[in-house]
Amino acid sequence: MSRHLISIDDLDRPGIERILDLARSFAEVSGREIKKVPALKGRTIVNLFYEASTRTSSSFELAAKRLSADVVSIRSAGSSVDKGESLKDTVQTLSAYDPAAIVIRSPWAGAAQQITGWTDAAVVNAGDGKHEHPTQALLDVFTLTQALGSLEGLNIWIVGDVMHSRVARSDILAFQRMGATVTVCGPPTLIPRQIEALGCSAQDTMANLHEADVVYVLRMQHERMHDSYVPTLREYAQRYQVNLPRLREGQLVMHPGPVNRGVEMSGDAIDSASSLIGAQVKSGVAVRMAVLYELLVGAPVLQAVA
Amino acid sequence: MAAEKLFHRPARPAELLIRQVHVLDPRSGIDAPHDVLIRDGQIAELGEPGALTGDSIPPTTPEIEAAGKHLFPAFVDPHVHLRTPGQEYKENIETGTTAAAVGGFCQLIAMPNTSPTIDQVSVLKALTATATEQAVVPTGFLASITIALQGSELTEMAALSDTGALGFTDDGRPVVSAGMLRKALQYQRLAGGVIALHEEDPALSGEGVMHEGAVSARLGVAGIPSISESTFVARDAAIARFEDARVHFQHLSCVESVEALAAARAAGARVSGEATPHHLTLTDEDVLGLDSNFKMNPPLRSESDRQAVIEGLRTGVLECIATDHAPHARHEKEMPFEQAPMGTTGLETSFMAVYTTLVKPGVLPLSLVIERMTAGGALYGLPIPRIATGEAANVVLVDLEREWVVGEGGYASRSQNCCFHGRRLSGVVELTVAAGSVVFASRGAGITTLTEVS
Predict the structure, then answer these.
(1) Strand A155-159 versus strand A70-75 pairing type
(2) Percent of the residues in chain B that have a pLDDT greater than 70, as a whole number
(3) Could you say which of A231, B60, B237, B252 would form a disulfide bridge with B264 (CB–CB 3.0 to 4.6 Å)?
(4) Residue B3, exposed/middle/buried by CB under 10 A (0-12, 13-18, 19+)?
């Protein structure tokens, strides 16, 4: 793995598998009474979040703490970012603290890649605009591996607002890299033109949903209705909601959260035995521990620096 | 209108003998080694190599031994942003025209989307006065079609034309209202001048910041579809034809636009079009790294679009190459791609990028590229630079064999946002003569008595 984690494209299949192996051992740590290992003791990790986030920011913070790192978490509200400081100035200022890693969430595609030029720290992309969210995809792969053993040969459908979803893009790449076949499905207004260039196929209707082994549901945001991507959320739900009548026995359901109950997923589907949503959240900490460990301890380049 | 609508600071007329140089001027039908004597800023004699000797050449005349190098008519760029007035931190008349001299240009046409906009006689007068003091290369100006580029009120086009405007454009923005454009085209009969259009339907562009296609799908970055440009080209060509108006389409970037322009021309519309070096040589694949130097409007499009622009240039549907030189300060471009301003500089790399990417591999003939590099001013009624006895000296000396890395030695432009930054290009401009004066000479040019020239 390279020095940073910006995109799923930074990882080949053995790289992903190494992180999954690490995550398995860290999941074991998370099951202990004392959930802490000294791997990153004395090192600093900065979480720089330019967007609201609950799951990602809390799990990165917990992951760093369970690795014994010192953690500084900065949110744009109330910080110098709010006062008009440029991304470059903020990153250079924080880099003066000599952090081992900067975890960045930004509303802008490419921001994580861009700051690698302005800091010596390893950079972890915690979501850049609608571009990528690689640690989400890794925890999704981890969750599926825990549930099914492997993704090889799986048929995975990603349903909903693919256009505005960084999760969808990272998942399409990661699922395929691990041997799965991916179909995206949603209203034609929300499926990007030429999405097939990523290797997946695209469907406008749920007619063939039964083909899926796994149904990955994306969040449908209310503002899409106001921008006329869909006429109403009611019509969206009628056509694309993942609910028990649409699911067949044995299909697994996933969602990156937060879920709009009754819109993209029905309540009974969320709470059903086939739902992996809870397992996804649980995987988040272990997988992010694995990513930080791999970047800061595993990589030979950084060993030389450290 | 013509040369009196070009403004530049006075400079000493060149005295120069260029020996053994390969002269290529497609319009004059010259493509062979010559000795070229420039006296008092004019091309005084063109002779066989070694033929120019004796009494006609004063002994103090500086000489360049240029065997193996090429002399072309100097280039013309009908589309540059010199950022004056108001945005001199990006570029000013002197730095922008110096960049042009370095790139081999002898005529520029500057866009009016400055701060304030060139939408009043007083602003244009002040600008031409500045150019008369600072412009290294003769520069003409377009005024805006509508006040402050707002698309709602026409400028005093006739008065602006009388003050020196070569034409009108709201470049950077489209004229969204078909009714407003129609009035401007009707009024053109009174005001004269070419109306140049940046074509883009904002309803289709939306929040887009790059070409809509496979790469934008991969990046999750909002796309600008090709039809955003081409539907406006088709619409405005139809209005131009209806009013028998003279319209120039700026920086066309896609298959559908080239087709729309060709169809309108075939139907008798008085329309022309330009191609930029970046749309001729780069595609949206170059945007994959989200480097903001590749963010421009219109965006870099697909490979099939690039091929269509190349074909348009070859067939003459697109008459000229124009850089759309659009400097931005470093801090403005050092932003995440979606937030950075649109634009690339181009004056220092225009010919070399096209030569390296299209001429060297044999895609386009050199003579055609030289013709297109020099055609942009004539579309606005400016004289075409030619290499012929008695013509004002507007020439560029280029060593096509030498290579260089863009940006390695810095830029003459005040800004560095060049989409070719870091690329190895063939072709080094060694000397530029514009309006009879040496405006640029590199150390490598080997002028024996350069200090006496400048």
Answers:
(1) unpaired
(2) 97
(3) B237
(4) middle
Residue B343 lies in a domain: yes
CA A168 to chain B, closest CA, distance in angstroms equals: 10
Q: Rounded to whole angstroms, how far apart are CA atoms A23 and A41?
A: 19
First to last CA, chain A: 17
Residues of A with CB under 8 A from a CB of B: 86-88, 106, 108-111, 113-114, 128-132, 163-166, 169, 192-195, 197-198
Alpha carbon distance A162, A157 (integer Å): 11
If you search the block for the tokens 């225009």, which residue do you land on? B350
Residue A228 has pLDDT above 90, yes or no: no
Co-location of B16 and B130 in the same domain = no
Residues of chain A found within 8 Å of residue B217, distances taken between Cβ atoms: 192-195, 197-198
Alpha-helical runs (H) found in B244-329:
255-266, 277-281, 303-315
Class of domain A134-280: alpha beta
The answer to whether the beta carbons of residues B97 and B415 sit under 8 Å apart is no
**CATH number given to A8-132+283-305:** 3.40.50.1370
Return d(Cα B70, Cα B18) in angstroms, integer.
10
Output b/e per residue, A139-157; b: 16+ Cβ within 10 A: bbbbbbbbeeeebeebebb
> CATH code at B16?
2.30.40.10
Q: Do A113 and B212 touch (CB under 8 A)?
A: no
pLDDT of B88 strictly over 80: yes
- pLDDT of B56 reads 74
Range of the domain at B177: 74-380
Question: If pLDDT is split at 50, 70 and 90, which confidence band does B447 have?
Answer: low
Residues B34 and B161 in one domain: no
Q: Which of chain A's residues have a Cβ under 8 Å away from the Cβ of B218?
A: 169, 197-198
What pLDDT, in 10s, does the model give residues B207-253?
999 999 999 999 999 999 999 999 999 999 999 999 999 999 999 99
Residue B409 shares a structural domain with residue B348: no
In whole angstroms, give the CA distance from residue B243 to residue A242: 56
Contact B69, B21 (CB under 8 A): yes
The CA distance from B400 to the nearest CA of chain A, in Å, is: 35
The predicted-structure confidence for B301-347, as pLDDT tens digits, reads as follows 999 999 999 999 999 999 999 999 999 999 999 999 999 999 999 99
A190-201: buried (b, 16+ CB within 10 Å) or exposed (e) per residue?
A: bbbbbbeebebe
pTM value? 0.94
Q: Do B337 and A109 touch (CB under 8 A)?
A: yes
Residues B65 and B94 in one domain: no
Q: How far is B302 from chain A (nearest CA, A)?
A: 12
Q: What is the mean pLDDT of residues A138-142?
A: 98
Residue A106: pLDDT over 70:
yes
Whether residues B262 and B347 fall in one domain: yes
The total of structural domains in chain B comes to 2
> Would you say residue B385 lies in a domain?
no
CB spacing of B219 vs A109 below 8 angstroms: yes
CA-angle at A84, arms to A79 and A88, nearest 5°? 85
